[in-house]
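User: Here's a chain of 370 residues. Predict its fold as tokens.
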Amino acid sequence: MNIVYDHQIFAMQEYGGVSRYYYEIANRIAAAKNKVEIFAPLFVNQYFRDDCIIRPQGVKIPCSPALIRAITNPVNILSSYLLIRQRRNVDIFHETYYPAIDCCPHSAKRVITVHDMIHEKFPHYFPRQDTTRKNKARAVHRAHHIICVSENTRRDLIELLNVPQEKTSVVYHGYSISCAIGSVKPANHEKPFILYVGSRGSYKNFDLLLRAFASSKLLRNEFSIICFGGGKASAREKKLLNTLDLPSDCVKYIDGNDPVLAGLYASAKTFVYPSLYEGFGIPPLEAMAFGCPVVCSNTSSIPEVVGDAAHLFDPTITSDLRAAMETVVSSSEYSARLKSKGYERIKLFSWDKCANDTLGVYEKVLGMNR
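Assistant: Prediction complete.
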């Protein structure tokens, strides 16, 4: 089988969940004796190392939004249209995002993965000039098949974009941190801490965590919050900390590599995931892998992913999150039970299974029998 992945996500993300997904499945599908190509004349992604089975067919350039807009996108789109669209030896063309221009080869079946429906459910969080919704609608309707990363995402896709269910399949993500569990160095901090990972804006609902933390005498006196990734505190966050009468040093902002994150997961009293919406949600599985009790929202795909291995709360109610955190950090017995359930839950998810199921979708689209 000849499979081509386009340039889009690799020219947009140095690191990130979507590009990590394609990196993981592309290498595994290539290892299964398929011909796999990532056509990206110019790219910024950092996941591909020299020892990878496949790498983007192009030149890695510095990641600069201005450079991407001015050079990367035009070069990649023109090259794809002229060199890929005309080819007749491609079986599957997997679009890695939602292209404005159709570059699918004449011979290929087009597959696309929908990771979430955030732009459709929360349009007020995005600028008016954002074209993602329009491009996504066009891309899914012209696709031969659509992979959804959860049943919840599939339901939202069918409802919001009127896509036939038979045109869709659910393939769960895997999870991975490039750090062996036995080699993790615990994080060393003055106070026990609650861990938050990733961006903190809009639907990620980080403000709720701050409000819940501030409303608890136990939490604000005996714990701190550590935020990994997502950059330094914004002016709005600093203002909220001041409004909540929280000292600035009660929240620490850390960036780093996978071993640093693994150490934080292994050392945190609990990992909190207060998002209002997720298409899948990998961080709770990462936390479980390192024995960290998980507290997370009871909305969208999150309960589907975590099952009974996490303490769920209503992400619209501050007191519900406060009570959830207090329950977990106050009971070593309950924390141990969540930890044990987490180890069992993560056995259901792997990149090997994700790649194998994705290959099954390709074969189904081509009318092949396994």
